[in-house]
Amino acid sequence: xxxxxxxxxxxxxxxxxxxxxxxxxxxxxxxxxxxxxxxxxxxxxxxxxxxxxxxxxxxxxxxxxxxxxxxxxxxxxxxxxxxxxxxxxxxxxxxxxxxxxxxxxxxxxxxxxxxxxxxxxxxxxxxxxxxxxxxxxxxxxxxxxxxxxxxxxxxxxxxxxxxxxxxxxxxxxxxxxxxxxxxxxxxxxxxxxxxxxxxxxxxxxxxxxxxxxxxxxxxxxxxxxxxxxxxxxxxxxxxxxxxxxxxxxxxxxxxxxxxxxxxxxxxxxxxxxxxxxxxxxxxxxxxxxxxxxxxxxxxxxxxxxxxxxxxxxxxxxxxxxxx
Amino acid sequence: xxxxxxxxxxxxxxxxxxxxxxxxxxxxxxxxxxxxxxxxxxxxxxxxxxxxxxxxxxxxxxxxxxxxxxxxxxxxxxxxxxxxxxxxxxxxxxxxxxxxxxxxxxxxxxxxxxxxxxxxxxxxxxxxxxxxxxxxxxxxxxxxxxxxxxxxxxxxxxxxxxxxxxxxxxxxxxxxxxxxxxxxxxxxxxxxxxxxxxxxxxxxxxxxxxxxxxxxxxxxxxxxxxxxxxxxxxxxxxxxxxxxxxxxxxxxxxxxxxxxxxxxxxxxxxxxxxxxxxxxxxxxxxxxxxxxxxxxxxxxxxxxxxxxxxxxxxxxxxxxxxx
Lengths: 323, 323
Description:
Largest sheet of chain A: 7 strands, mixed
Oligomer: homodimer
Shape of chain A: globular
Number of domains of chain A: 2
Strand order of the largest sheet of chain A: 8-11-7-12-9-13-10
Largest interface: A-B, 55 and 56 residues
Distance between the termini of chain A: 34 Å
CATH superfamily of the largest domain in chain A: PurM-like C-terminal domain
Structural class of chain A: alpha+beta
Radius of gyration of chain A: 19 Å
Mean pLDDT of chain A: 94
């Protein structure tokens, strides 16, 4: 929807709404730009404090995906009348704690009464205007890295539908509260070798891969067998769990897709992620090193999952392999 | 709700959530701080483009109230399924045009599907960390200035309830799209003489006056007869129009209130404002000059509406006079 807005002519706008990047970037001076983003989501589990943490991690992730450092956040909330005040306070406290974990501060908020429950943050971070990660810039020969498992949408919906119990879902969902901070810091250290990056959220792996392929005018080949997955996802697919976004996600990338997908992989590559990982296009010669350094920094699931190819006469494409 | 959050211990937080200020302020360097705020509202009239402008002016106002200059904005929207795509586009376009009018840029957005329609902005502005207007700092002997008429809540609700037709309401509502930019710029020019300031929004004149009185530990005396009012507000009150926030607003300031209010003034001083004016505590010696310069800058309704008194043994108070 936002992509339809014309690009502001303001020369201080480094990244606007035109390339489906994760956040906007606005130059304040020669060496300082602000990274601005906002996100709010519906509850992913019944624990208000953990939900607050996950929603905050999800909002902060867009700043990390651009190589920025989160500084200040504003809480954005829609709370239904029926929500217990203690639950609302727990959501806000979870968000605030995760913002503090990011080294930033919640300095305000806006809350409305509504029929649905939503919570999230608008976040302002800082970044050097010449050191921004974007959707554009992936080069032929790059290798693709994914830093977190896929399948959180299946677990969240499995829990909602009773296909998995809280005891088994919770350890997975707790991981969604983890920040992409360490991943971003390692990427910044190897800035010259990170040619493009995004985080994987609502459009699923292939939806965000599509933005990167189109933005960079390349083809992306993804090795299905190498994709990191959360536990229990095969069980969720076998039980028929899916999400409301999976089908629109699938339809939106279909024109670019090459290769066959089994039912299982079809669910996973289109599964909308909450607080998903970084998807990185790194120079072929340094991708192994980047991956190793990510793992050393605690990003345990960072894995090479594919490579960048030249786009063909049909334009950018997404190739899935290994089925 | 946000005031219940503990203050972040981060020393870069210049203004956090503890004093009901209009926006948060976070120091980036010795001479640069960011002002961050977010607001989203339900439609105030049936014209999507004008609504977008008003919602944007309303969101930008919090940055102006702190003496900041808006730079970058993120659109925040909840759009119901039934909303025509053209109407959604008009709302976003109105917002974007008003952000451009402020010299800032919309650099991103977050839209969700929901049952209600909400639109607004998160805004990041810049300000010198030593030149911030706050709720605290009003001094005994200051005079109080209000820069815009009261009663927009009555007009908006009168229109919803059919107590006023679109043709008569629209000229009033169109004024809500005006920015508080000129007012803020004049206040910045006379920075040393502006001891405290806020903008008048959902809590009504007395609700925001209360925040300023409590924050500054003073009493505020307001001359009812001098308050600027939008056209048609007496008719609205006579027709029994009120708003859903008027009663909670009244109850929340009742403990501090001194003096009698007729039904008419009772509605007006508690009427929630959308995109309301600045409420300024300026040094007694320079208030006339500030007011004159505001009028010269196009802030035609700027008026002296009262004065600051010493708080008594009961603490801060709000006195209404001239009934």
